[in-house]
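User: Modeling request: complex.
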Amino acid sequence: MHKEIKRKSARLPEETLWIHYLLHIGFTKSLLSEAKIRKYRREYGRRSINRASDLIKDSQLAFQIHGWPSLPSNKEPGKSVSSLNTLTEFSFLASAMYYLYKERVYTSLSIAEVVSAYELYTNIRSIHENKNKQISPSTAFYVARELELDIALIPYCNNCNIRYYSSADQHIKNACPFCREAGEGDFDDQKNWTF
Ligand SMILES: [Zn+2]
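Assistant: Request completed. Predicted assembly structure:
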């Protein structure tokens, strides 16, 4: 009994609400368990997230009701970029991140900041009749980690006056998805030197 009380008090009620909110948006349980989403504190862990998620297991989550994407939760987003359509989609997300946080995208965005950027990205893409598959919130979180690890960049294209996504792991040329030329701050120069 005593042990039970101690275990339950490990997470604050507002933290449980925050986890519920993130689950409703469509973040996966695996991300919330494993990723470092709390400042100065360790990962929640599977048991903690399962306990929070059990409390709402009988209700439909917002992402299920509205058909928002939840999967895939892609830990290496760059590797999934193999077409111009995907590159364009990731560029919408990356531009939203850069618009909100500028160079800070390369430090460490919090999950709350990722959520704000994700919201902006969702709004931008819904203006046009976008037929591409929308990126999931969990993948968006891992894009932020790619930026932090210098695996991905958000270069600027002078021809199109836009920012776009560029990952060291992507399967197509690192260049603007619209004019196909390498923009300012892209990988291309470094790549030419390395290989
Ligand atoms: Zn361009």
